[in-house]
Structure formats: C-alpha cells, structure tokens
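Batch job 17 of 40 flagged for manual review because the log was empty.
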Amino acid sequence: MISFSSVLTAILTLMAGIGVFLVACQMMSTHLEAVSSKRLKQLFSKTGKSKWSSGAVTVMVIGFVNVGILSLTQAATIIYGANIGTTVTAQLVALGMFGKNSISTTIIFAAFAGIGAFMTLFSKRNATKQVGGILTGFGMLFVGLSMMANAMDEFAALDAVKQFLASINNAVLLVLVGAILTAIIQSSSVMTSIAITMVVSGLVTLDQGIYLTMGSNIGSCVVAIIAGVTSGTSAKRTAMIHLIFNIMGVAIFMLIGFLLRVTTGNEWTFGILFDRMFPSAPQIQLAMFHTIFNISTMLVAMPLTNALVNLACRIVKESPEEKSDEPHLRYLNEQMLSTPVVAIRQLKAEIENMAELAIQNFQRSIHIITTMDYSEVEQFRKTEILLNYLNKELVDYSVKLSGKSLNSFDQRYLITTIRTVSDLERIGDYAENIVEYADALKGQNAKFSDDAVVEIKKMEQLIVDLYNEIMLAYHKLDHEALERAKTPYRTPCAWSVHAISRGGIPVAGTELRTCRRPPHQRRQDDS
C-alpha cells in the first residue's frame, strides 16, 4: 500500500533539492564572473581566434552571433566545448556521492556553504565576499544533491514506483522522457544529477540512466531555442546548430547501443560495458558515460562543422525584417545581461562605436561648412538619428546592468558610462548645429574666406588628434595617451569654436585667430 504522505514528501523533497541546486549554480556562476572579470573579458576577446575554444555558455554565444561578434562556425565550435563543460557537474556530483557508510563526501562539500556564508557576512573586502559567494554556491550544490538523493531513496522504497520505472525500458522512450524533463527544468546538469541519484538508489538501471542522460542533452537545447526565437536569423541558426549537434550525438550512440544488443544477443549494453570499466561505482559509471558521450560527439562533429552550419542556414532562412536599415545596437542584446562581465565589455565596444560615429559626423559637418558640399548630408542625418538612438539605449542598458553583480572595477566603470554616452551625443548635437549654420550661410549666399577655412581645418585636426589620444586611452587604458590628451594644445580660441558650433554665424570673410589659454586657465581646465 503506497502511503500518500510518503509520495508527497518525496516529491516535495525532490523539488526543494532541484531548487537549491539551480540557485547554487546561479550563485556560483555570478560570483565566478565577478571574481574573474578581467580574465573573462580577455578570454572572450580572443574567443573567435581558435576553432577549439570552449567553456562559453550557449545562450551567451547566441547573443554574440546575434550582434555579429562571432561567426556561425566559431559559435558551433564553442557550443561543442560548452557541452563538454557541462560534464564537470556530473563528475562533481559523482564525487560527492561516496562514503555513505562513513562521513559522506556530500556532507564534507556541503560544509563549504557555511564557510562561504561566514566569509560573505563578516568580511569587509569585496573580493573576499565574492570568494565566499563561490564557496556558498559550491556547498549548496551538494545540499541540493543530498535532498535529491534522499527523495530518490524515498521513491526506491515504494515498490509500485520501482515497478513502473522498470517497465520503461524502451531506449527511444527514455530519451524522450529525459528530453522533456530537462526542457521543463531547463538544466541538463540537474537532470543528469537526478539520473545519477536514481541509479545509485537503485530506482533505475544504469542503462535507463544512460538513455535519460542522452535525452537531457536534447532537452538542454530548449534554453538556446528560447533565446534564439527572440533574436535575429543568425541567433536562430546558432540554436539550430546546437539542436542538430545534440540530436546527431544521441542518434549515433543509440545506433551503437542497438548494434551492441543485436550483435551480442543483449550480452553487451552500455550499462554492462561501463559497469565492467568502473565496477561497484554506479555514480562514476554514469558520469563517465556522460563525459565520453559529449567528447565523442564533439570529435565526430568537428570535421562536419561547415556542413552543420550550411544545414542550419538551409533550415532557417533569412527574414526580410533583418534587411531593414533601422537603428540597432551593434554589440549588445538583452541575453548578455545574464553574463554581466561580458556585457560590460560589449557595452564598452558599443560606446567606442558611438564615439567613432560622433567624430565622423563632426568631420562631415566641418566639410559641409567649409566647402558647402552637401553630398554627405543624408548620411549625416542618418548618423545623427543613430547617435540619438544609441544615447537612449545605452543609458537604459547601463541602468539595467547596474543592478547586476559586478566587481568594484566594473562598478566604477559603469558609473562613468552614462556621462560618457551623453557627452558623445552632445558632440553629435554640436555637429548638427554646425550644419544648421552652414544652411544659414548658404541662404545668405555667403561662405568663409580661404584663410578662415585653413584655420577651421587646423581646429578640426587638433580635435581629431585629441579624439585619437582619448580613444587610445579609453580602449587600452593607456595612461600615457591620457597625459598626451591633457597637454595644452595651441588651440583656436574658445570664441571661434563657439562661433562655429553654437554661438551665431561669423561674418563672411572674417579670420579665425588662434591663441593659447592663459597658464592659470590651463591648469584649472586640466585639473
């Protein structure tokens, strides 16, 4: 007779364990990103240079492809590495399930949650708090694992549950169940951990656990597909590559499993093979299968990468909307907010792109007012609209990013971004004013003298030189370039700059004289 309270207790314990496990994964991920911020930025700046890159999160890769940072081929190979990276969790879970007759490794590892919590609560240093967060997340992984294992023990004590699960021995059905459960949980790591605890408790056989694990790889694509649906064509193709890759791996191993059973008369299956390889350790048997499965699939897929990319492109056609010339962010999207350390780097790239657009429009405005050549005015107008769009979007994005967990360096940088973006938009406004004054001059049938044009060009060159030094300092944190930018130039007087940019129209033929600022004014400005 099945006790309703026993079943309910087991279900609630399993749900609690899954919840703790997922929160722990998120906590570890967040604090690891914050601690290794600079290294991660360097890693992702080099991601596209090697076909064997690994360790990226699939959703983040979809974001990179969507904004044009990675090609589909590069994204595919990173996804291969991401699948291998997920096997680390299974190995940790297997390691944590030893020693049930003495001091369990689960309990030892779970104790790290307490150590990390003390570090987070009582330390005043931000770096120590971040390390404490990592340890807390690591320990909570095993707290969640322990709860899931207890739930499986409860289920294993129920004969009706064991008989029901024993009746599900069709490989295709088991893969389907694993895929569906993973799609619901949205974590292949959690599904694999559940499968390991089920095998260890005797709730399912090793063969059943293996096919559930294979299904979890297909189910893990749901997260990527959800991310791709709201993104561009390239992102959808990346999600499709992820799905094709995992289906291909499952199909290959199911074929191998079928041939093993047929040719040996069921004397050899994956379960028997791994039981012989790793005797008396069911948790290691399933974890090692998971690792070998993903590595083998990657080795098969590597030489077929271009074919996978072409297939994905054939399945997912380019949408007409993407051909429009509407303003859009070049390096950022909403998905990147889930990885703040990378979003910070891409925000910087977006600001550098905005700066380049602003200086281009400034130079266009100078060309227009000195030559009365309006051939680029249409491009000028489009760029001005784009600058206004970027100003709004980047400020909004910075506000969203400020609510994420960041280290002190990134927090300080983020504080400066709103002012930086506003200043760049103001440069665009000044350029627009210059063009307006050019329009007024044109209406009066007037223009600057040749000498005045020479002076304006000198001013333009000084500003461009200053821009180049500032951008070098901004991009590479080059302090020498920053000092050069601070050096007092022999610049046009303030009145002459304002005369062009916002202080009224100079009389045609007047000269723009140059002067040096008084020393006391230079010191005040430079400070």
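Reviewer: the log was empty due to a logging misconfiguration, but the result itself is present. Residues 43-57, 490-527 have pLDDT under 50 and may be disordered. Unflagging and moving on to job 18.
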